[in-house]
Amino acid sequence: MTLPEVLLWRELRRRPGSLKFRRQHPFGRCIVDFYCPAARLVIEIDGMAHQMGSEADRDRRRDSWLRSQGLHVARFAVPEVMNDLEAVVREIVRTALSRLPLHQAALGSPPQDRILGRN
């Protein structure tokens, strides 16, 4: 894993928002950076390589295929993760909670400290 992925994994493994995440999760021929099964949310961290050459097209095709499987894809650039990890985690939790089935989402949003994995 890259440094931004390591930093994000350190936060996600604390189960922010009481959500479980997996890292390096396979889908077909794809391996996604992180995955929240309850929300069917894929999280990808994009470095500079994702902006070069044919990588952007490859990412679009891959995202399209993942969406066709009923998944939502959230992409974050490396500078976002490195400069404001807390905001990235908040956005991931907000997105995941908004995708939970109604009976789970109706429980309400957890307090801010729980979203960020703090006690």
From TrEMBL:
Q: Which GO terms describe its molecular function?
A: endonuclease activity
CDD domains from the entry?
Endonuclease_DUF559
DUF559 domain mapped to chain residues? 1-94
The UniProt keywords, alphabetically, are: Endonuclease, Hydrolase, Nuclease
Q: Which InterPro entries match?
A: DUF559 (IPR007569), Endonuclease_DUF559_bact (IPR047216), Restrct_endonuc-II-like (IPR011335)
Extract the SUPFAM superfamilies matched here: Restriction endonuclease-like
Name of the protein: Endonuclease domain-containing protein
Q: Which organism is it from?
A: Sphingomonas brevis
